[in-house]
Amino acid sequence: MIRLGKLTDYGLVLMSQIARRPAAEMHTARDLAVECHLPLPTVSKLLKKLLHSGLLTSHRGIKGGYNLARESQLISLAEIIAALEGPLALTECSMEITGLCDLESLCPIKDNQRIISQVIRGALEKVTLSDLIRPMRLTAIRDQKGNLVPTVSVASGRMQ
Amino acid sequence: MIRLGKLTDYGLVLMSQIARRPAAEMHTARDLAVECHLPLPTVSKLLKKLLHSGLLTSHRGIKGGYNLARESQLISLAEIIAALEGPLALTECSMEITGLCDLESLCPIKDNQRIISQVIRGALEKVTLSDLIRPMRLTAIRDQKGNLVPTVSVASGRMQ
DNA sequence: ATAAAGAGTACTAGAACAGTACTATTTCAT
DNA sequence: ATGAAATAGTACTGTTCTAGTACTCTTTAT
Q1: Pairs across A and B, CB distance < 8 A
Q2: For A71-99, b where at least 16 C-beta lie within 10 A, e where not — what string?
Q3: Quick one: which of A50, A142, B67, B75 could link to B129 by a disulfide (CB 3.0–4.6 Å)?
Q4: Domain boundaries, chain B
Q5: Whether domain A6-153 has CATH 1.10.540.10
Q6: With contact defined as beta carbons under 8 Å apart, do B120 and B128 qualify?
Q7: How far apart are CA A80 and CA A53, in angstroms?
């Protein structure tokens, strides 16, 4: 079951906002709430989740706040989403992967859900937080059938 | 807002089941329900949706049934999912793409949701129904950080 | 000591999904 | 012609889960 809810979107907005500022700066939940136009309790809750997943560091007390645990280029969208939505439906199968699929064994998939999760996950692994905050170029190409296919290309030239 | 619910999964199972059989065969909702172990009313509802989206053809009356509207290689997962979940959150931006982004104009994205939708959509566009029914090879590679990254490679050698 | 910030828990209202039932319409076979 | 089997369409309902909110405790710098 794959899902990107409103809260996850908020979480991404928050992470982007933190990433946009200099790395040394601390960010309080209150400030982030104002900057992102989100209710404070919601922001608090999200930041806590992101903290527990190891994507943020926190400092308590006055002059406290949150900051990125790693550089933004090292944080993938898949990680952020997993932190907020729970493991991206790769629960059971990822267990098997470590044991079986490393050996290129054939996987008798009956659940399509797994394939799809992995395709999506693969795509999200490739996009990092830093890709999200820099302006991206949106191009539309036509496939062999003549349909418009939107393509997201990052400034660095990497293709998704 | 991206979501793959239970019903969408059922829909994919149904499409796979139809695609697995010879193209000439007709498939009644009743048969598919039995074969896929799903309740008949649910199957009916899903098939109707898929029909309206142009992914299936139908024939009424006794000896009626459903069939694929196109060959399975020409039906992408994105299409099936869009048929069952509604347009994959690419509502507004895809409109703009036709006009602006074709010209490689810079897109001042404030909603991350759009980027993500497009990344995911791009990934799902590449996988077809025929990819889904043939056995796939699941491999796990390690990235530069040492994390396991599951990768789905199709028998044809195409990479996702 | 105090004020400001994060940490943790619990509760509530609302929406959306999933499932079901019922009826009409079409078509082939007898 | 008639009946059976199939799709087509609509409406309803219960349950689950999300989103939002409130309150209290702990930590830390001034």
Answers
A1: 159
A2: ebeebbbbbbbbbbbeebbbeebbeebee
A3: B75
A4: 6-153
A5: no
A6: no
A7: 9
ipTM exceeding 0.85, yes/no = no
Joined together, the tokens standing for residue B143 give 């990235």
**Beta strands A136-142 and B2-4: pairing type?**
unpaired
Give the pLDDT of chain B (160 residues) as one tens digit per residue: 677 888 888 899 899 999 988 988 999 999 999 998 889 999 999 999 999 999 999 999 999 999 999 999 999 999 999 899 876 543 333 333 333 333 333 333 355 677 788 888 888 999 999 988 765 544 444 455 555 555 544 443 333 3
- Residue B130 in contact with residue B73, Cβ under 8 Å? yes
Strand C-proximal protein residues, Cβ less than 7 Å: A 27-30, 44-45, 47-48, 51-52, 58-66; B 3, 5-8, 10, 39, 41-42, 45, 59-64
Q: Is the CB of A142 under 7 A from strand D?
A: no
Closest Cβ opposite residue A97 in set B90, B98, B148: B148
Question: Could you give the CA distance from residue B44 to residue A109 in angstroms, rounded to a whole number?
Answer: 25
Cα separation of A153 and B65, whole Å?
Answer: 43
